[in-house]
Amino acid sequence: FGREAKEPAVLVDPCKVVTQALDMIGEQLRLFGIEVVTELDKKCSPILGHPIQMEQVVLNLLTNARDAITERNGKSKITIRVFEDDKGINIISEDTGGGIAEDALSRIFDPFFTAKPIGQGTGLGLSVSYGIVTEANGTIIAENIDGGARFTINIPVNIH
User: Fold this and answer.
1) What is the model's pLDDT at position 1?
2) CA 141, CA 146: separation in Å to the nearest integer?
3) 45: which residues sit within 8 A by CB, 6+ positions away?
4) CB atoms closer than 10 angstroms to residue 50
5) Which among 7, 79, 101, 132 is most buried, taking Cβ atoms within 10 Å?
6) pLDDT of 74-106, one tens digit each?
7) Residue 147's closest CA among 82, 80, 72, 90?
8) Distances in whole angstroms, Cα of residue 147 to Cα of each of 34, 54, 100, 109, 140
9) How far is CA 75 from the centre of its chain?
């Protein structure tokens, strides 16, 4: 559903990926009245991937969070954390958008599946994101948390 990257994967700073995605959409989130909280490790090991594709993953998560938050009244907050543990680099996005319908959770990464109203979503953002993360030997999971949704991406560290 997207073009395959012709250039080889490179070492990517995951914190920089998040900050660059926020640079692109941060002002829009502010105008919507959405508080964005970032918790980024001071020093993250690099991951192997394509910087623009990785930014696209974060942009998809932020855009979906924005859409979910603006459809309801209440607290408007997105928290993005990047940290390293023994399993690799973790990028976690949490929002206060009300969560994902239980019957949609198992299909959220399927191509053309969308929970958005007709004309407001293609159902490709999370499917493409899933492909990008999987290509980087990572995992992405979606789950509901109190008052919203959490997406957890884990990508192994590539130290050579």
Assistant:
1) 44
2) 16
3) 84, 89, 157, 158, 159
4) 19
5) 132
6) 789 999 999 999 999 999 999 999 999 888 888
7) 72
8) 15, 27, 10, 21, 20
9) 20
Q: What are the strands, taking DSSP E only, across 5-137? A: 10-12, 35-40, 47-49, 77-85, 88-95
> pLDDT value at position 115?
64
Radius of gyration of the chain (CA): 15
Tokens (6 digits) for 41: 């490790």
* 67, two tokens: 């859409």
Q: What is the pLDDT of residue 158?
A: 67
Cross-strand bridge partners of residue 89: 84, 155
Q: Which residue's structure tokens are 């009300």?
A: 98
Mean pLDDT of the residues in the chain: 88
Distance of CA 41 to the CA centre of its chain: 17
For 31, the token pair is 């105008």
The amino acid that residue 7 corresponds to is E
**Which amino acid does the sequence have at 80?**
I
